[in-house]
Specification:
Elements: E1 3-5, E2 12-14, E3 19-33, E4 46-58, H1 72-91, E5 97-102, E6 111-116, H2 123-134, E7 140-144, H3 153-163, H4 166-169, E8 170-177, E9 191-199
Parallel strand pairs: 6-7, 7-9
Antiparallel strand pairs: 1-2, 3-4, 5-6, 8-9
Helix pairs in contact: 1-2
């Protein structure tokens, strides 16, 4: 990146900047503000320092790009690095971890589906605990087998419906540190109840009991031959 000096403050800024705002952040003056967060809900009102704008510099025909709060760009910027962080946190505990997906329904923040290649019965619960430790704002962690696509909500729902027994495979953790964004939680004290779901097939039964049926030779069929 090439830098140049700001005409006002003399501070270095990117040379290709389209718009430059100069001013002061007032340390001794605040104002109440409220913003839209990733869940598309209004965040708790907070008092924030005031920015006092002094000068605006523009290029000829400048491009202004902003992010719409609570939608795709906002969630991508926040959620993508957390997915990577979660993957490594869980894989350090469960070596068979294959993929981590923060779901759209969980605003790419509160709900994670974690795909593992299960070797031992206790691994899904270890993965759940590791996920909550790796991303304290996480509220729901769902563990699925490696034949379930964690990015396909229908397949995840199928795994919960056919591979989970609520009396054995649900992990409820009350009074946990959670996200300030969740309106159903105690937002002032950051306390919530977390839920982990082990939606993996039990190893106590034959693997073929959970095998998803396929049409023999379907991988060789090309629809283009019949259209």
């Amino acid at each position: 990146m090439t830098l140049t000096k700001s005409p006002g403050t003399g501070l270095y800024i990117p040379r290709n900047s389209e718009i430059l705002l100069e001013g002061r952040i007032l340390a001794d003056e605040t104002s109440e503000e409220q913003m839209v967060e990733m869940l598309r809900t209004y965040d708790i009102k907070r008092r924030q320092p005031i920015f006092e704008l002094e000068k605006i510099y523009l290029t000829d025909d400048p491009i202004y790009h902003d992010i719409l709060p609570g939608y795709g760009e906002h969630r991508l910027l926040m959620g993508l690095p957390i997915e990577s962080k979660l993957f490594h946190s869980v894989k350090d505990v469960v070596s068979g971890t294959r993929e981590v997906h923060l779901t759209d329904g969980g605003s790419n923040w509160l709900t994670a589906v974690i795909q593992i290649r299960k070797k031992l019965e206790g691994e899904p619960k270890n993965a759940i605990v590791a996920a909550f430790a790796g991303h304290p704002s996480l509220k729901i962690a769902i563990i699925v087998d490696d034949d379930i696509n964690p990015r396909n909500p229908t397949e995840v729902d199928y795994a919960i419906s056919t591979r989970c027994q609520a009396d054995k495979d649900l992990l409820i953790i009350p009074n946990s540190k959670g996200s300030s964004l969740d309106p159903s939680s105690d937002q002032n004290n950051l306390v919530t109840t977390k839920m982990g779901i082990d939606a993996t097939a039990t190893l106590s039964k034959s693997k073929d009991r959970f095998e998803i049926a396929k049409i023999p030779g379907e991988e060789k069929i090309r629809l283009s031959d019949y259209l």
